[in-house]
Amino acid sequence: KIAFLNGQFAPLAELKISVMDRGFLFGDGVYEMIPVYQRVAFRLDEHLVRLANNLAQVRIENPYSISAWREHIQALIHAQTFVDQSIYLQVSRGSAYPRQHAFPLEAMPTVLMFADELEPPPALAVECGVSAITCNDVRWQRCNIKAISLLANVLAKQEAVDAGVAEAILLRDGDLTEGAASNIFIVKDGVIYTPAPSNLMLTGITYDVILELAQQHDLPVTLAPVTEQMLRDADELWLTSSSKEVLAIVNLDGQAVGNGQVGPIYKIMYGLYQNFKMTVMHR
Ligand code: PLP
């Protein structure tokens, strides 16, 4: 697998960074995960805009212009043997000695990108749905930043894995925020509800796509706080992310969601999402 480090392309296994890199020592950096279908990056500009905003939020200078990012990503995509890919991209504040919390005066951001083969969600998960648990959201107040410091998300996801389920749904002060690695939507009486973007969640690229598709196809949506009670009383529950696309959650904390089956609005939305992916690929 060919990867990209600071402007150079090389086999992933050969890449090395300094142990003084602040990504390693402090989790001081931001990242993106961009799905690629048939060598076409999905929603690339939206990912690059989010990256630029995240870099600005953490005060790391954006190492490349949008067009330079696009070129490097194209080159990375075409260096792979497989056509469906997930591109992992991370920018850390760079390496500096001695170790100290405050920004170093002179450090060049470390830019790493690599591609993995993208597997679509298994047909069984799409057709029958997945299970989830709820967890307390113990993260910081700036979850809108796609930071590489993901310890709280890692611990929540492991709780899900230990419970034998696909995702941990996070609750803060009695309200839904998001999943450990996804955004969450509910459906009640034909209306789609999801929390409005805030500092307590990451605004997913997929979240935006789902809202756009709902609007284009006259599916009613309400952006509003989703309480724990609404979550548990929902007719349908979905998770969305770039890698999972949109999946129905049919069991929450061991209880059936709605009638425990994949719901009708989910099926519509899943179809719309697949069609949308196709139109982008053939553009
Ligand atoms: N929220 C969190 C915490 C995530 O880690 C992710 C993606 O991994 C998402 C939401 C969904 O974001 P996207 O749709 O951009 O993949």
Give a topology summary.
Layout (H helix, E strand, L loop, with lengths): L1 E4 L2 E4 L10 H5 L2 E9 L2 E2 L2 H14 L8 H13 L6 E8 L17 E8 L5 H6 L1 E7 L14 H12 L4 E6 L2 E5 L3 E6 L2 E4 L10 H12 L4 E3 L4 H6 L2 E6 L3 E8 L2 E2 L7 H18 L2
Parallel strand pairs: 7-8, 7-14, 11-12
Antiparallel strand pairs: 1-2, 1-6, 3-4, 3-5, 5-6, 8-9, 10-11, 10-13, 13-14, 14-15
Helix pairs in contact: 6-8
Bound molecules: pyridoxal-5'-phosphate (PLP).
Give a verbal description of the structure.
With 283 residues, this protein is of the alpha+beta class. The protein folds into 2 domains: 2-117, D-amino Acid Aminotransferase, Chain A, domain 1 (2-Layer Sandwich), CATH 3.30.470; 123-281, Alpha-Beta Barrel (D-amino Acid Aminotransferase, Chain A, domain 2), CATH 3.20.10.10. The chain is built from 8 helices and 15 strands. The chain has helices at 22-26, 44-57, 66-78, 123-128, 151-162, 205-216, 228-233, 264-281, and strands at residues 2-5, 8-11, 29-37, 40-41, 85-92, 110-117, 130-136, 167-172, 175-179, 183-188, 191-194, 221-223, 236-241, 245-252, 255-256. The strands form 2 sheets. Strands 7, 8, 9, 10, 11, 12, 13, 14 and 15 form a 9-stranded mixed sheet that branches. Strand 10 (183-188) and strand 11 (191-194) form a beta hairpin. Helix 6 (205-216) packs across helix 8. The protein is globular and about 55 Å long. The two termini are 27 Å apart. The model has no long low-confidence stretch (mean pLDDT 97). The structure holds pyridoxal-5'-phosphate (PLP). The site of pyridoxal-5'-phosphate has 14 residues, from helix 6 and strand 13.
